[in-house]
Amino acid sequence: MTLVCQSVDVSIAGKIICSQMNLELMPGQFWGLLGPNGIGKTTLLKCMAGLDPPDSGLVLLENQAIDKLPRRAVARLLGMLQQHTVYIFDASVLETAMTGRHPHLGYWEREGPQDKQKALAAIRAVDLEGFESRSVTGLSGGEARRLAFASLVVQEPAILLLDEPTNHLDMKHQIRIMNHVKAQIIKEQRSAMIAMHDVNLAARYCSHILMLYGDGDWQAGPVNELLNLENLERLYQCPVESVQTSSGRRFLPGN
Amino acid sequence: MIPISLRRSLLFLLLSLSIGSIFFASATGSVSLGWSEWLTALQDSSSRHGELIWRLRLPRAMAAWVVGSMLAMSGCLMQVLLRNPLADPYVLGVSGGAAFATLLGMVMGVAVAYLPWLAILGALISILIVFGLARGTGPWSGTRLLLTGVVTASGWAALISLILSLSPDNSLRGMLFWLMGDLSYATLPWWSLLVLGGSLILTLGLARSLNVLAMGETTARLLGEPTRHMLWLVYLLASILTATAVSIAGSIGFVGLIVPHLMRLLVGSDHRILIPAATLFGGLFLVLSDTLARTVLSPQQLPVGVITALLGVPLFLLLLNRARLKGV
C-alpha cells in the first residue's frame, strides 16, 4: 500500500505550503513532518488524506487519484488522527473506539464480537482500560487524545496520517503511542506520516523526514541525512545545539 | 444511562406503553368510560360510546401518536445535522412556512380539509428557500444552514404576525390554537404513516452513519462517509417529517426538543437505539399530553401545544439542573 504525491502544489489563503512536491510513502516507512507553527502541516496532511484537493498535481492511493475514490474505500486503507478531538454528544469510550470499524461494516450491519475485541485491545494499548463505559464528554484532554488514537488503531488503516498525536500527552504516553505506531509499521508493513514539534521524538522513531521551510520550499529524505543542525536552524529560525546520547544524537535550542 | 442489556427491554416497554396510552386516551375524556363499558363500546362501533371511541377518540389518539413520533425523530436528526443537542425540528423555519400558508388559507376562507395541503406547500417552499440559499457551491456549512434557516424562520414569524394583526377577531382564536399546536380537528392521512415508516426504516439503516456524523464532518469523512450527500439527506428527511407533523396538528412545541434529550440521557447517543426509543416515546408523550389537554379543564379543550410546553419546560430545567449537580 503506497501513498504518492506527484508534483503537488498546496497552499492556504494564498500562502504556498509546498510546491512541486514529490513523495512516496512506502510500507515500513515512518515519516516525520516537521515545520514551524502555522507553516501548513495540517493542511498538507488533509490534502494527503484526500479531504481537500491540491492546487495542482496528484495524490495517488494505490495508483488511483485519491479524490476520485469513494470515501469508504479510502477509509479502509488510510486513516488520519486530527489535531483536535472534541466530543459534543455523550457516548461511552468503548462506543467511540468502535467507530473505527465504521468503514468496514455495511448499512444494517452491527459490530460483531471480533470488532469489540479489537476495540478493547486498542483501549488497552492506549492505557484507558477500565474507562470503557465512561462518557467521552468527561475525559481529560490527554485521555480524549488517546481515545482518538485508539479509534484510529481500530480502523486498521495501512497508511496512518497523524497530526501531532503526542499533544497533551505526558512522557510515558508519548512513548507508548510512538512505540505502538512503530510496532505496527514494522510488524504489519504499514506506513505513517506524523506531524510534530518534538525533533527528538522524530530522531528516535522516524525513518524519514519531510521538512516544510515556508514559501513552498521543502526537503524530504532519510532521517540521518536531513536531521542536522544546519537544516533545523533554517527550519525553526533559531540556534540549535546537539548532544550525543546513548541512543543517538539529540537536539536542544541553543543560545 | 441504563445498561446496554436493558436497552432492548426499554424499547418493548415504550411500545407497550404507547399502545396502552392510545387505549387509555380512547377511554378518557369528558365522558369517561369504565373498563367494561369501554370493552363493550370497542366491540360495537355503532353504539353511542362506540362511535365516540372509533370516530373521535381513537383517530385523534393515533394522530397524536404519529405526530409525536415524527417530531421526536425529526428532532434527533436536526441535532445531528447541526451538531447541537439543543436543535429542534422548527429551528430551520419549516414550521414557519407551513404556519404562514395555513393562516393565509384560513384568512382567505379555504375549506378546512385543504389546510393540511397548504401547510405542506408552505413547508416545501420554506425547505426549498433554505436549501437553495444555504447550499451554495462550497463545502457543507452547518453554520450557513443554521443562519439561513433561523433568518428564514424569523421572516415567516414576521409574516405570521402581519396576518394575525390584519385578521378579524372571530378567526383569531382558531389561528392561535393552530399556531400553538392543536389536535382537535386532526385527522390521520394514510400517507403520513408511509412517511413515518419509510423514514424510520431509512434512518435505522443509516443509524451508524448518524453516530459518525455527530462526531463532526471531517471525522465522518475520514471514517468513510460521503458527508455532503448524507447531510442533505438528513436535512430533507427531518424537514419532510416536520412538514407532515405540522400539516396534521400545527406547530406543537417542545416534543422535538425534550424527547430526544430525555432519551439521550436514558440510552446514550447511539442512534441505533436512540432513534427508535425517541420515536416511541415521542408518540407516547404526545398522546398523554393530548389526553391531558382534553380533560384537565373539561369540557373546555386546550391546545396540546400549551400542555407540551407546560410539561416540557419544567422537566427540561429539572434535567439540566440534575445534570449540573452530577457534574456532567
Summarize this structure as a short list of keywords or feature phrases.
heterodimer; A: 255 residues; alpha/beta; Rossmann fold; four-stranded antiparallel β-sheet; 29% strand; B: 328 residues; mainly alpha; ABC transporter involved in vitamin B12 uptake, BtuC
Q: Helical amount among residues of chain A, as a percent range?
A: 25-40%
In the CATH scheme, the class of chain B would be Mainly Alpha
Q: Pairing-aware structural class of the strands and helices of chain B?
A: mainly alpha
Shape of chain A: globular
Q: Indicate the overall shape of chain B.
A: globular
Which strand-content bin applies to the residues of chain A?
Answer: 25-35%
What is the fold named in CATH at topology level of chain B?
Answer: ABC transporter involved in vitamin B12 uptake, BtuC
Oligomer: heterodimer
Give me the strand/helix succession of chain B: HHHHHHHHHHHHHH
Annotated CATH homologous superfamily of chain B: ABC transporter involved in vitamin B12 uptake, BtuC
Poorly predicted ranges of chain B (pLDDT <50, ≥5 residues)?
none
Biggest chain contact: A-B, 33 and 29 residues
The percent of residues in helical segments of chain B reads: over 70%
How would you sum up the major sheet of chain A?
Answer: 6 strands, mixed
| Mean pLDDT value of chain B | 88
Count up the domains of chain A: 1
Uncertain runs of chain A are none
Architecture of chain B, CATH level 2?
Answer: Orthogonal Bundle
Biggest sheet details of chain B: none
Rg estimate of chain A, integer Å: 18 Å
Could you walk me through the main structural features you see in this protein, from its secondary elements to its overall organization?
The complex is a heterodimer of chains A (255) and B (328). With 255 residues, chain A is an alpha/beta fold. Chain A has one domain: Rossmann fold, CATH 3.40.50. Helices cover 34% and strands 29% of the residues of chain A. Chain A contains nine helices and twelve strands. Chain A has a six-stranded mixed sheet with strand order 6-7-8-3-9-10, sandwiched between helices. A four-stranded antiparallel sheet of chain A has the order 2-1-4-5, covered by helices on one side. A two-stranded antiparallel ribbon of chain A has the order 11-12. In chain A, strand 9 (208-214) and strand 10 (217-222) form a beta hairpin. The longest helix of chain A has 18 residues, at 171-188. Chain A is globular, with a radius of gyration of 18 Å. The relative contact order of chain A is 0.17. Chain B is mostly helical and 328 residues long. Chain B has a single domain, classed as ABC transporter involved in vitamin B12 uptake, BtuC (Orthogonal Bundle), CATH 1.10.3470.10. Chain B has 14 helices and no strands. Chain B has helices at residues 4-27, 35-43, 48-81, 94-107, 115-135, 142-166, 169-180, 190-205, 207-213, 217-222, 227-249, 255-267, 271-295, 304-325. The model of chain B has no long low-confidence stretch (mean pLDDT 88). At the A-B interface, helix 2 of A face helix 9 and helix 10 of B.
